[in-house]
Amino acid sequence: MNFFTYLLHLAGSSASAYIGASQIRDPLTRPNVIAGFQLAESGSVPFLQALSDRAAAEGDTWLAEKLARHASDEKRHGQIFAQALKRINKQVIDFKSIPKTTTEGKPDERRRSPFFEAYFQGYPPEAIKPENMDWTVFMASTYILELDASKDFVRMANVLPEDESNSVALKKGLLSIAEDETGHAAYLYEALQRRFPEATVQQIVDEWRTRKVNALLAMVSNMMQKSGKMSSLVQDGVPTEESEEESELAVA
């Protein structure tokens, strides 16, 4: 990573941390943030499980077991966020009831992620499906996301008020999730080390760190175009079933 990219990384990470912390602290924006996390965590479960099955089929038992545990953790994380919404009488919107395009024929903003479009720029959709995704791409891209998420969740947990039961419960959940994310980053980095010498690992990680910087810039630009307004991901009410249905959509 060159020095300019490093500076952008610091600026982007700081801005992202500030935005995340302010939105999770504000009771008005908190439900939407929680819903986004629920969709992202729960939506990754089928993807990770498919990768685990693929690793097992390829004879990599170590990776298959790590991925299976990762999928199990993400499922639990989704349930933590679902319960956080339930405590405030909210739930994630039903994406099946939302048209894929607006009346103007444009894709519904809730069904696209400028962040991930930029993060995986140059990779067609077929190339990032679990049955096709290059292992190095998966390991490095996910390592960056898990490492940063572990820190972001701690920051968000630390700004939550401690004089209200729902916030206290959410804080406990966020810290638990952050610990899991740290473990995920560790096994993904080890997976890279099993395949490449350390110098090559650093080059690969630097490439995806640069991609993360560019993706953050794309996300901020998108938010500025919408004047900071976020599409709603929640609706009133609580799930009719205790265990929520796993979403197939991951939202950044």
Automatic annotation (TrEMBL):
Gene3D superfamilies the UniProt entry points to: 1.20.1260.10
- Signal peptide feature range: none
**InterPro entries from the xrefs?**
Ferritin-like, Ferritin-like_SF
Composition skew (Acidic residues), residue ranges = 239-252
**Region of interest (Disordered), ranges:** 230-252
Please state what the protein is called: Ferritin-like domain-containing protein
Organism of origin is Funiculus sociatus GB2-A5
